[in-house]
Amino acid sequence: MDFKKVVSHCKEYGFIFQSSEIYDGLAAVYDYGPYGVELKNNIKEYWWKSMTQLHENIVGIDAAIFMHPKTWKASGHVDAFNDPMVDNKDSNKRYRADVLIEEYMDKLDAKVEKEIKKAAKRFGDSFDPVMYKETNPRVKGYLDKKQEVGSRLAKAMTDSDMPELKKIIEDLEIACPVSGSRNWTDVRQFNLMFNTQLGNIAGEEGKLYLRPETAQGIFVNFLNVQKTTRQKLPFGIAQIGKAFRNEIVARQFIFRMREFEQMEMQYFIAPGTQTEWYAFWKEMRLKWHKALGTPEENLRFHDHENLAHYADAAVDIQFNFPFGFKELEGIHSRTDFDLSQHQELSGKKLQYFDPERNENYVPYVVETSIGCDRMFLAAISNSLQEETVPDAEGKESTRIVMKLHPALAPIKAAVLPLLKNKEELTSKAKEVYKKLSLHFPCQYDEKDAIGRRYRRQDAIGTPYCITIDFETLDDDTVTIRDRDSLEQKRVKIDELVSIVSKNVSMSELLESLLQ
Ligand code: ATP
What we know:
The protein is of the alpha+beta class.
């Protein structure tokens, strides 16, 4: 669905509001509304349980946002957590230099796609896109150009070569999308960490950072956790928590925020086994996404060309957002970089005694890191659909429906008395509502015609609508309507808890990960 529609739907139906909206908002900061918080909690529950409950060697922690400032020196964030920034002198708009170049590369990709579509039409069934890409001079030209630009960008980023980034922008004649001019400032490094002061200690001494990632809280607690839970390698530590980044350009709604939430898991392993565990976690994480019903063609791996200072291998799981394939999750092989750094700066040993190898060493780490908010956006954009369906009288009508996996849906069932002004129906419906509310989040709704009430529930992704009518008063049966198939069945009130619970169950979703 169109991105603008996704954004306005989130606001209209109480999923996401702009932060401090009455003061015209705060850029790239958002609040989750009543349905948003339920969906977000369900995403977190799915992730948390899949990590900690399904793996006996993964445990959780909840570390503080503030950490000793030396943490960020050790991790490399003080010196190297920068993005290259460039301003257009005519529009005064600020951009990330690497993103401007990546967008240029995306345009080359789009040109290739267009040529391929045109040729496929021309040649019909006999068309071979692979051969066409290799032989058509125009398409080959675009692809070679993309390759060349990609290598230059990767090298400039790895070398932190700001003049070269500026040169690439100039060579490609990239113009500001707002002013259309190519009047750029020099490219400068910009550190993304927010800082604040500790108590009444002034100056550098009291400088504290808001954590830009949750991972470091895990690294510094590595020995605490290993010893208190008597873990042997390999073992993992999982954490969900807020992270803060002073992003240069924050667009695209909750895709890039300044305050966001991460779900990270660091898996501590013996040196030399990282290739095997990296492959294992790549597969596990893709499975986690697919179990939600996300179509395979909307997910893909993307290997990093320019590796971060700590990694020996890194891949993104990209999702096909309404604005194209973008990073949803990262899987990184971080070597012993972080633990060794903390060992050095703290002067405390962060080693593990391996009884099988009969030696002490600093473990290696493979991490999986996903943004909860990006996952939220992926879940919503994947499931929000506009459909033509028959209405109550059998006429065609359109409906907006959010086909979320039932285990993620904010409300599991809505209880609807057929008529609002019949006391016997409403009191029976309230009774059913109370009974079901003990088991899962439900909603009672008596306002408007039944068709409109169904539409409201479709729009927030409620898997079941339960209608109480006159027959209910005679024989304690109700109709239960399925959000996706629209099928309506008559069932006993006593069966409702088990029917709904089974289909919205988090355990069933988790079980599908074991197959
Ligand atoms: P990007 O290249 O998009 O800036 P990144 O590579 O810096 O992301 P990581 O440091 O690997 O991201 O962070 C892990 C995950 O945290 C990302 O895959 C993403 O889901 C999430 N994330 C990172 N930055 C943001 C942000 N500003 N807003 C929302 N989620 C974010």
